[in-house]
Amino acid sequence: MSAFRIVARRATLVSVWLVGASVVTAVTASGQILRGIGRKATDAVERKANRKVDEKIDQAAQKLVDRSFDSVFGAEDTGGGANKDGKSGGASRVFSMLPNAPTEDHYDFDAVFTYEVENLRKGKPSDDKGLIVMHFNSDGKYTGTRIASAQPKKEDGEVFAIFDIKNESMVMLMTSDKDKMSVAYSWKDAGRYAGNAPPPSGGMQTSGTAVNTAPDKQITFSSLGKRPIAGYAAEGYKGENVDGEVEVWVSNDASLSYARMMGASSSMKQMRGVVPGTYPAGMLLEVISTDRKSGDKGRMTIKSIDTKAKVRIDMSEYPRLGKGK
């Protein structure tokens, strides 16, 4: 074989090798690029998915808070109006959102009062019946109220509102399925219930006196006598004004000295229309109210009293929503 042919053959082999190497390199590079694009795309999808999940979680959390707040205080009145009690919906005039509102590490309650509450619309079966379980602390630092519906819905969970006078906070504890969480609000009216501060709306009224409001809204109470309720001596009073009438039974038993603290729960929708803004001094045991115009009735009756309760709420079990880091 001539030297020329040998050189030509080698050149051909080298060319083939270079072409093959180029093809392999190109394929390898393309594979790397594709894998890189794949990883970036996967990361982008994951980030997008995570954002969507976070958005859904935020929306679900907001709905839970809104539903819980509305179940306790009533829906927000976006039309600038007020309910028949003259209070804006959602209790927004009383509480304001404050993510870092202070709370206690735990709350201890030594007395529990369970009331059955029912709103009866004239000519209609009862559709708004439930339990209000009030928790009291003998030191007067805070009070708690658990709302229980007669027909609870799974998605509603359970709501426990703590009126923390010491920290001027209203804390909502929410339990949904197996999850627990909390929201803290600033409570600007807390001072009304601290120490010896006078109660709102002119103070508790006694028989024969009237609430210090407009003349046509004044409620004058007259005695209904005495009778035992839940094992305690109770005194009854009947109050009337242009809106309707109310029958109130209270006890002044020394062991039931929590009357002042009940006012903290007056903004709850379950109590509006049933419990008057002021009533004869004493611990509330029963109320029956009648709206003069509609004929609707409201009833709140004590079902059980435990003055030796030992209930502790550990805030570490209720992660705070919206708390700043």
Characterise this structure.
The chain is an alpha+beta fold and 325 residues long. It has a single domain, classed as outer membrane lipoprotein receptor (LolB), chain A, CATH 2.50.20. It is 23% helix and 34% strand. The chain contains 2 helices and 14 strands. It has helices at residues 3-73, 259-262, and strands at 95-97, 106-109, 111-120, 128-136, 142-149, 158-164, 169-176, 179-187, 220-229, 232-241, 244-251, 283-291, 297-306, 311-314. Strands 1-8-7-6-5-4-3-13-12-11-10-9 form a 12-stranded antiparallel β-sheet. The longest helix has 71 residues, at 3-73. The N and C termini lie far apart (85 Å).
Topology:
Blueprint lengths: L2 H71 L21 E3 L8 E4 L1 E10 L7 E9 L5 E8 L8 E7 L4 E8 L2 E9 L32 E10 L2 E10 L2 E8 L7 H4 L20 E9 L5 E10 L4 E4 L11
Antiparallel strand pairs: 1-8, 2-14, 3-4, 3-13, 4-5, 5-6, 6-7, 7-8, 9-10, 10-11, 11-12, 12-13
Give the averaged pLDDT, no decimals. 74
Strand order of the largest sheet: 1-8-7-6-5-4-3-13-12-11-10-9
The percent range for helix content is 10-25%
Structural class: alpha+beta
CATH overall fold name: outer membrane lipoprotein receptor (LolB), chain A
CATH structural architecture: Clam
**What is the count of structural domains?**
1
Rounded to the nearest angstrom, the radius of gyration is: 33 Å
Low confidence ranges:
77-90, 196-212
Content of β-strand? 25-35%
| β-strand number | 14
Provide the CATH top-level class. Mainly Beta
Main beta sheet: 12 strands, antiparallel
Run of helices and strands: HEEEEEEEEEEEHEEE
Shape: elongated
Terminal residue distance: 85 Å
Number of helices: 2
